[in-house]
Write a structure and sequence with these properties.
The chain has a single domain, classed as SH3 type barrels (Roll). By secondary structure, it is mostly beta strands. Helix content is about 10%, strand content about 45%. A hairpin with a 2-residue loop joins β1 and β2. A 5-stranded antiparallel β-sheet has the order 4-3-2-1-5, with no helix packed on it.
């Protein structure tokens, strides 16, 4: 079992990212790289984190965004090489009682953000 712990520590050190600490309910902006034919551009997605899943190198998070009356969710792997940077826009003022905030899907407008 000690060998497994050593391997996990090495893996954790190799995957270091300098992202800000965020949790469910926070509003973040993720800049990720999109390939369009022969050029690469940064596409920003700003929204509420509704789910953080996994651990270690399998960690991922889901961002829910509402734009022009349509909502969509994007799931990003935490250690993806396509993520350029993550900005923490606004922290949730209260701690959510659930780890998955799927109940925000039914809300519209300002009610869809934890305050």
């Amino acid at each position: 079992m000690d060998k497994l712990l050593v391997v996990e520590k090495e893996l954790k050190n190799s995957l270091k990212k300098d992202y800000p600490e965020f949790k469910q309910g926070d509003v973040i902006k993720v800049f990720y790289k999109v390939r369009e034919k022969d050029k690469i551009r940064l596409h920003p997605v700003e929204g509420v984190i509704i789910k953080i899943k996994g651990a270690m190198h399998r960690k991922s998070f889901t961002v829910r965004r509402t734009a022009y009356g349509q909502s969509y969710e994007v799931t990003f792997p935490y250690f993806s090489p396509n993520i350029q940077k993550i900005d923490l826009i606004k922290e949730s003022r209260r701690r959510p009682r659930r780890s998955r905030l799927h109940y925000l899907r039914g809300r519209v407008g300002k009610k869809s953000v934890l305050t």
